[in-house]
Amino acid sequence: MAASEPRSGGAAATAATGVASGAGAVPSAAAAASAGDAARKRAERMGATLPERDTRFKTEDVTKTRGNDFEDYMLKRELLMGIFEKGFETPSPVQEEVIPVAISGMDVLARAKNGTGKTAAFCIPVLQRVDPSAEHIQAVVMLPTRELSLQTSAVLKELGRHMEVNVMVSTGGTPLRDDLARLCKAVHILVGTPGRVADLVRRGAAKCSKATMLVFDEADKLLSGDFDGDIEEIIRAMPADRQMMLLSATFPVAVKDFRDAYMRSPAEVNLMEELTLKGITQYYAFVEEHQKVMCLHTLFAKLEVRQSIIFCNSVSRVELLAKRITEMGFSCFYIHSRMEQSDRNRVFHEFRKGSTRHLVCTDLFTRGIDIDTVNVVINFDFPTGSETYLHRIGRSGRFGHLGLAVNMITNKDKKELFAIEQELATEIKAIPREIDRSVYCM
């Protein structure tokens, strides 16, 4: 298959990011819209209850496809219903490449930008290959954080709503006895963080000897060394001929070493000629430390914020900034790793529901969290390292939509700013006096 060879998508990397432009962008978007119209008509004939259509502008990150339809992959009717009712019309580039190869049972190593449809790219093949009549764990999906585990399990449940597939999510910070009780019943797909899943395997509660699929999302984080022992234990509990899928935006040496040790001639998909999403416009504001809160107030007053995520570099600064924002008269939640899991879950779900406009957080919230109403990301504290920066700003501009990233830069951050520009082959411009809303609100 074509996907067994590395594929490069999109235009060559340029010095600037921002709104996709040029002769190729408009025809791609128009073609995608036309294909989407046809897909909706077919879905309606199937009896699917379709959500309201998302008519916002989309960039080539998700529209520059080969023109395939979900029906081309011979998916189960019940799964197609879930796909259409989720609001998906046609596959994105990463979905076009991963889905047919993964359905065939091959190992897959896929590198694609955050926010381009990676989650559905592995969820759809997993659901296609699961047999609901076989009452045992058939797939294990590993995520690095509790919030991402909850989000991914929700996507699996939504896509598989007509399939009678039981999806269980298990993470640390929740009562172990509840997980043990749920595993006494049939579970087809187990989603969770490595520590908790490995614990369930050790206890004999999560029986994975017949699980034929193992998925690592955000593989770079999972294989960074923090979870090595747990991951090895989970792998040992599974059959030797299991299928493995690794997906991430970045592939450091640890991922390549893992591929060589555990994967069997994986199909490699690479859609990463440029690292930053085409739809994210990036600016920096040069400020003194004591001016940051006032700068934030100005941004809130001038920008058209649907929802924003504001990053700080420490737990104490998160709580302090959230308090200052509330004192300024703006609704605000905060979230960080030291909070009780029940409180983290509540904040996560309330923010997703739109109960507040602003969320202050640590890097806990950089991985894969997909909230498409977030159109502004603010680095109140500038991050260290291009990888963290890339994951932070990727919280806006999800699935080809437009977004804005504003970085507050002090004297000590200048060197890091330059280094990140060089590593990502991007340009972070000085913030103008007025920002055209069309670059982040279309």
Automatic annotation (TrEMBL):
Protein name (record): RNA helicase
Family stated for the protein in its record: Belongs to the DEAD box helicase family. DDX6/DHH1 subfamily.
Region feature (Disordered): 1-20, 30-56
Residue ranges occupied by any Helicase ATP-binding domain in the UniProt entry: 99-269
Compositionally biased region (Basic and acidic residues): 38-56
Location of the Helicase C-terminal domain: 279-439
Motif (Q motif): 68-96
Domain DEAD-box RNA helicase Q: 68-96
PANTHER family: DEAD-BOX ATP-DEPENDENT RNA HELICASE 50 (PTHR47960)
Domain of life: Eukaryota
Keywords from the UniProt entry: ATP-binding, Helicase, Hydrolase, Nucleotide-binding
Chain intervals with Low complexity compositional bias: 8-20
Keyword Signal listed: no
Organism encoding this protein: Cafeteria roenbergensis (Marine flagellate)
Annotated GO CC locations: cytoplasm
Recorded GO MF terms: ATP binding; hydrolase activity; nucleic acid binding; RNA helicase activity
SMART domains according to UniProt: DEXDc, HELICc
Signal peptide range: none
Compartments (UniProt record): Cytoplasm
Major subcellular location class: cytoplasm
